[in-house]
Amino acid sequence: MRQYTWKSWTLAILITLLSIVYQRMTGPTYPMRGKVQIGDQAISYKLLRSHSTSADYLLTLPRIHSDVQAKVLWRRYRTNDPWASIPLVAQQDQLVAALPKQPSAGKLEYYLEMQLDQQTVSFPKHPIIIRFKGDVPFYFLIPHILLMFLGMIFSNQAGILAFCKLPSFKITLHTWIYLLLGGLLFGPIVQYYAFGVFWSGFPYGHDLTDNKTMIAMIFWTIALCMEIKKSPKARYWVITAAVVSLLIYCIPHSLFGSELDYSKLPKP
Description:
Layout: H1 2-26, E1 32-38, E2 41-47, E3 50-52, E4 57-62, E5 69-76, E6 84-87, E7 89-91, E8 94-99, E9 107-116, E10 119-133, H2 138-163, H3 169-195, H4 208-228, H5 234-249
Parallel strand pairs: 3-10
Antiparallel strand pairs: 1-2, 4-8, 5-6, 5-9, 7-8, 9-10
């Protein structure tokens, strides 16, 4: 039994880590990386899609040639603003430009142009959307991340135990507590610091992160109640809650997240 439990914990942690990597790399806030060819050289770039409201976004490219001219074109997202242009200025071995910081949940779309001799290249293929968020105090952010991480590990462990017809009540209870504290206590606090609202999921908005938390809590509450009642169906509810949690956890983080409506702000 102990050996089996050790193996199940290892599997639960592995599943959690893999889902975190997948969620992170497929999310809309993950930096875009790529290469662009100009002249006889390829330039590697990394362009951010999330940034703090406390400072402008300092965009940098490697400076491969003294005659290279580059500019970033940008505008506020979902507006009819004309595209503004900012030249990238040479600073030692880099080309640098600053995109203006935005209010919480404000978004900009931008792309770059580089010119060398008679060649002009634009990249990436489609404009990048960058969202600005407020800085979250670490004493709220760290517990939120840690509790959600533990909640997902215990969720996977509960599902594995239930699938193997082993006792899962204590693990189910821990899962429910971690998700409650991490998702419904610290989650709204983090959301408030980052985007100025405590909750933007159903029924007030369509923030997928908030809605995912709500759905997971509904399933785990049912599973826990079934476990407390010692229902013959408890095992199936635990498995269902674990599978649902894993599926929604793999949905990219911040998808359909909070977004500032620029039409409600004074025109610049």
